[in-house]
Amino acid sequence: MSEEVSIYGDEPTYIVSPPKSTPKVKIKKLHPDAVIPTKATPQSACYDVYAPCNFEVRPGRSVMPLGLAIELPTGYAAEIRSRSGYSSKGFAGNFDVSEYRFDADAIAGIVDADFRNGIGVILKSCETRPFVILKGQRVAQMLIIKAETVDFEESDSLSETERQGGFGHTGI
Fold first, then answer.
1. What is the pLDDT of residues 49-63, one digit of tens each?
2. Residue 121, helix vs strand vs coil
């Protein structure tokens, strides 16, 4: 907000910039049952992404295709991240005919603005047996972020701060 002197008196007039238009993300279905990402609530930061078909998760790492390709505006990226409920309680999935929570989770990934192929979710399962994610299940979240371009400047020194340590040094 900027301050401007008013010609109508001694009180300053505050000029508020008009709202910026919402960036548009083009999306293409690569699978007939792919689901366009949705927000759980109007104030949700992330968009839920869904399994377009049943997907067997095997022990270790795998990539589950979402059946979608996106075109992000220049200067943006999409971060694929875990759903907090899966991170805290385990990944929902099926084994035989029963639903369980499994020791598995989505691992963060980035979709760059110039990537046009199918996007997916990186899954890591610590289970010893496979389990199935069902078609239509929310599997991860996608956060659209600004991706600033910076110039790195090599330096022999950095400014001092009071902070010391790292990797959990500030406590739990």
1. 999 999 999 999 999
2. strand
